[in-house]
C-alpha cells in the first residue's frame, strides 16, 4: 500500500465525522498499461471533492462528473473503464482497461468503525481483508490472510487485502536525508524523519514529511516500524547510526541501510556485531554501503541511489537482475 491510500482513508473518516456520505473506489484489476495497481483507493463526494487516484486523471474526471449527476447505483458494484462498461466512449490514454469497485458509505457508526479498522491496517497495526458482496450494501473486515493477493474477485464477492502503507524512516537529518525524503514522498511513501538535534531540526519543513524530535533508536524501540518500513541511517554519526541499526534489526523492516564508504561500513558492522551481539543473519539484513552503485557523488545522486535500492528490494528484484 502507498501513503496516498492512507490519506484517502484519513480523508474519508474526516468527511464521515462531518456528517457527509462518501463514495469509496478501489482498483480491482488492470489490463494492459495502467498507472495505479490493484488495491489503489479514491474517496469522493458528489460535490466533486476527492482524495486519492485511480489513474492518470481521465478516470477521476469522468467519475466525479457522473457522481455529481447521481448516476451510480447505491449498492456495491464494479464499473469498467477502457472497454465498454460504464463509459464506453472513454478510452484510456494508456490503452489499458480498469475495473473499479464503487461503494457508498453513509455517515454512521458502522462506517466509522469500518474506516477506523482500515486506518489501523494502513498504519501497520494489523493485516485486514475486506469482504464486499456485490449487488448489496454488505461489507465486513477480517484480520489475517498473509500471502493473499491484493485483490481477489469472484462472481458476486470481492476480497481486498489492506496492509501497511510503505514507510521510510530516516534516522537523522543531512543533505542526503532531505533529498531522500523528497524522492520518497514522490514515490508514495509515508516519510518520517527522526532527529533530536534542534540545530538541525529547527526550521525544517517539507510537505508530506513528519518530523519526530527523538533519537531514531528510541522511536524504533517504541514500535515505530512495521514490515513495510525501510530504515535508513544517513548521518555519518556513529552515536546515532549504530544505535539505529541495533534497534532496526529487531524489527520486521524490509530494508535497513547505513551510509558510508566500504571501509567505514566494515568498521560499523564490526562495532554493531560486537556491541549488540547480533548474529550473522541479522547482520546480513543491513545494506552497508547503502544504495545502488551509480557512481553517485552529490547528495541528490546518493539519495537517488538509496531510494532506487529501496524500490528494488520492495519490488523483489535481486541485484543480479539489474
From TrEMBL:
According to the UniProt entry, the coiled-coil residues are none
XdhC Rossmann domain location is 168-310
Q: Where is the XdhC- CoxI domain?
A: 15-82
- Specify one Pfam family: XdhC_C
Q: What is this protein called?
A: Xanthine dehydrogenase
- The source organism is Pseudomonas trivialis
Give the taxonomic lineage as stored in the record. Bacteria, Pseudomonadati, Pseudomonadota, Gammaproteobacteria, Pseudomonadales
Amino acid at each position: 500500500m502507498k501513503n496516498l491510500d492512507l490519506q484517502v482513508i484519513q480523508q474519508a473518516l474526516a468527511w464521515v465525522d462531518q456528517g457527509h456520505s462518501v463514495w469509496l473506489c478501489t482498483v480491482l484489476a488492470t489490463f494492459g498499461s495502467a498507472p495505479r495497481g490493484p488495491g489503489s483507493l479514491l474517496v469522493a463526494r458528489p460535490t466533486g471533492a476527492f482524495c486519492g487516484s485511480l489513474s492518470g486523471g481521465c478516470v477521476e474526471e469522468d467519475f466525479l462528473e457522473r457522481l455529481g449527476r447521481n448516476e451510480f447505483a447505491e449498492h456495491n458494484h464494479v464499473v469498467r473503464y477502457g472497454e465498454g462498461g460504464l463509459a464506453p466512449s472513454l478510452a484510456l490514454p494508456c490503452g489499458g482497461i480498469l475495473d473499479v469497485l464503487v461503494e457508498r458509505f453513509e455517515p454512521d457508526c458502522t462506517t466509522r468503525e469500518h474506516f477506523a479498522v482500515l486506518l489501523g491496517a494502513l498504519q501497520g497495526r494489523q493485516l485486514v481483508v475486506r469482504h464486499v458482496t456485490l449487488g448489496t450494501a454488505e461489507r465486513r473486515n477480517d484480520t489475517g490472510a498473509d500471502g493473499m493477493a491484493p485483490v481477489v474477485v469472484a462472481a458476486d464477492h470481492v476480497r481486498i487485502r489492506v496492509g501497511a502503507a510503505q514507510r521510510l524512516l530516516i534516522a537523522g537529518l543531512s543533505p542526503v536525508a532531505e533529498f531522500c525524503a523528497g524522492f520518497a514522498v514522490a514515490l508514495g511513501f509515508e516519510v518520517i524523519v527522526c532527529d533530536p538535534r534542534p540545530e538541525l531540526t529547527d526550521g525544517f519543513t517539507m510537505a508530506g514529511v513528519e518530523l519526530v524530535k527523538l533519537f531514531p533508536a528510541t522511536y524504533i524501540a517504541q514500535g515505530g516500524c512495521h514490515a513495510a518500513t525501510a530504515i535508513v541511517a544517513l548521518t555519518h554519526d556513529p552515536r546515532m547510526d549504530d544505535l539505529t541499526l541495533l534497534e532496526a534489526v529487531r524489527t520486521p523492516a524490509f530494508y535497513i541501510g547505513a551510509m558510508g564508504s566500504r571501509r567505514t561500513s566494515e568498521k560499523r558492522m564490526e562495532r554493531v556485531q560486537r556491541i549488540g551481539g547480533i548474529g550473522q543473519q541479522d547482520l546480513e539484513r543491513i545494506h552497508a554501503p547503502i544504495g545502488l552503485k551509480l557512481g553517485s557523488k552529490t547528495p541528490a545522486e546518493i539519495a537517488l541511489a538509496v531510494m532506487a535500492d529501496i524500490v528494488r528490494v520492495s519490488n523483489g528484484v535481486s541485484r543480479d537482475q539489474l
